[in-house]
Amino acid sequence: MGEVVATDHLPPVKNQLVVEIARKWIGTPYCHQASVRGAGADCLGLVRGIWRELFGGEPELVPTYTPDWMEAAGEERLWQAAGRHLSEVEMAGMPAPGEVVLFRMRKGAVAKHLGIAAERNACPSFIHAYSGHRVVESALTQAWQRRIVARFAFPKGVR
Fold first, then answer.
1. Mean pLDDT score across all residues of the chain
2. Is pLDDT at 7 greater than 50 in this prediction?
3. Residue whose C-alpha is closest to residue 68's, from 125, 153, 131, 11
4. How far is CA 36 from the centre of its chain?
5. In this structure, is residue 7 part of a structural domain?
6. Residue 62 CA to its chain's centroid (Å)
7. How many Å apart are CA 158 and CA 136, to the nearest integer?
8. What was the pLDDT predicted at 22?
9. What is the mean pLDDT of residues 41-55?
10. DSSP class of residue 117?
11. pTM recorded for the entire structure
């Protein structure tokens, strides 16, 4: 895999930098479990790639995962992993550009989609790797907003 980094002394991250890095991934083809800008990424791969650009290595090795993210078992593996390495943000208001947004695609299902909140032409948007598509920037419409179940920020410094 790659280098694993300790997360206890990470440098501060500006949210706008996260958005700038995420936008560099736009156009990368969707590929389950991949995380290589320009070659292939899924939604987690996009976040992993941003993490590597910010901090150099990943905070843990990522085990193999299925596209359904343990939906049948009801395990919130993606949410738990995000909670281990990112700072959970209060859900009030709209996500700030640079936040990681976690989506539940349908009621009762596990949360299994991630994106990076952004803003385009003063309208809320998010950057994500979308199955069957590529890494894209989409409008954060009401339909997407109501699916957000958690928001996270990249580490801001010493934890």
1. 87
2. no
3. 131
4. 14
5. no
6. 14
7. 32
8. 98
9. 95
10. E
11. 0.87
Expressed as residue numbers, the domain containing 63 is 15-153
pLDDT per position as a tens digit, 107-122? 888 899 999 999 999 9
Separation between Cα atoms, residue 15 and residue 123, nearest integer Å:
17
Q: What is the pLDDT of residue 12?
A: 52
Cα separation, 104 vs 149, whole angstroms:
6
| Residues 6+ positions from 20 with CB-CB distance below 8 Å | none
Q: Is the Cβ–Cβ distance between 77 and 145 less than 8 Å?
A: no
Rounded distance between C-alpha atoms, residue 13 and residue 108, angstroms: 34
The answer, yes or no, to whether residue 4 has pLDDT greater than 60, is: no
CATH code (residue 97): 3.90.1720.10
Bridge partners (DSSP) of residue 136 are: 128
Instruction: Say if 3 falls within a structural domain.
Output: no
Q: Considering just the CA atoms, what is the radius of gyration of the chain in Å?
A: 14
Residue 28 lies in a domain: yes
Total residues found in the chain within this entry: 159
* pLDDT computed for residue 71 by the predictor: 58
The side-by-side arrangement of strands in the sheet containing 148-153 is: 87-89, 148-153, 100-104, 111-120, 123-129, 135-139
Cα(4)–Cα(1) distance, integer angstroms: 9
Total of domains in the chain = 1
Q: What is the mean pLDDT of residues 41-62?
A: 92
Tell me whether residue 6 is in a domain.
no
